[in-house]
Amino acid sequence: MSHPGRLEGKTAIITGAGMGLGEGITRKFIEEGANVLLFEISAEHGQNVANQFAKDKAAFFKGDVTNLDHWEAALKACLDKFGKLDIVVNNAGVVHRAGPSHDVPRSEYDRIMNINVSPLYQSAKVIAPYFVKQKQGVFVNISSISAPRPRPNLVWYAGSKGAVSAITKGLAAELGPSGIRCNAICPVVAETGMVSSVLGGTDTLEGRAGLTKAIPLGRFATPQDIGNAACWLASDEASFITGIELPVDGGRALN
Ligand SMILES: NC(=O)c1ccc[n+]([C@@H]2O[C@H](COP(=O)([O-])OP(=O)(O)OC[C@H]3O[C@@H](n4cnc5c(N)ncnc54)[C@H](O)[C@@H]3O)[C@@H](O)[C@H]2O)c1
């Protein structure tokens, strides 16, 4: 007997959907029945992922998540294409090269804060009123296990993700009475282009082994792991879950 997908009939905007975790979340959402607008700054990557799916399930939107006008245009493009919006996944984000906090240039600090934190403002400003009007909607924000459990050398990144987690909880409290849920996912280091920065600029077997050793379940996270968690949080199965930071970290935060 075939079951309907967990996200059957839902429409999502997923930011940073052109590679890494965003691509994994997009794949899972479409497998589970959702329509997806891929809100991505790289035309090459965004279009490439969108092309892997049927045209009525996936559409690429070229935009920068730090730009309020682009959010307005993304909402319009989503409504024009799919007729509705139920879910926003704030996934796009960047990391600085791991190293002593005082060595991170000011320009890197500004870039991290701008790309990781400001999209939550932009999406709340543009999407929350739409969700309030329809009396339902879900935000899933990709934070990091470094938010609840910061460690040396990724301090500014952890700070930006601490803001993502705190803003998620604040919005959950504020928007809950309007039927809107907001949750954060906290991944451990994942198998994406970010690995070399997390390792200080060079991706080595020794560096990877050091990170893996600190994870009780003995591996990095995968885009599938994060896709599965995001799908559950976005689905009606999580209809009474709001304001949480869900670790998807193989037990890393226990150490
Ligand atoms: N990979 C990890 O180890 C890890 C761990 C914890 C949390 N995270 C978080 O997961 C999220 C995804 O990370 P990833 O590893 O998949 O990264 P990635 O670099 O592989 O992919 C990020 C995607 O976001 C897009 N993007 C970047 N800036 C953008 C902008 N201004 N507007 C629109 N799109 C933009 C990029 O083009 C890219 O396609 C980030 O928020 C990251 O902080 C990653």
From TrEMBL:
InterPro entries linked to this entry: NAD(P)-bd_dom_sf, Sc_DH/Rdtase_CS, SDR_fam
Superkingdom to which the source organism belongs: Eukaryota
The UniProt record lists the keyword Oxidoreductase: yes
Record's keyword annotation contains Nucleotide-binding: no
Swiss-Prot/TrEMBL keywords: NADP, Oxidoreductase
GO terms of molecular function: oxidoreductase activity
Pfam families per the UniProt record, alphabetical: adh_short_C2 (PF13561)
NCBIfam families, per database record: PRK07231.1
The protein, known as: Uncharacterized protein
Organism: Recurvomyces mirabilis
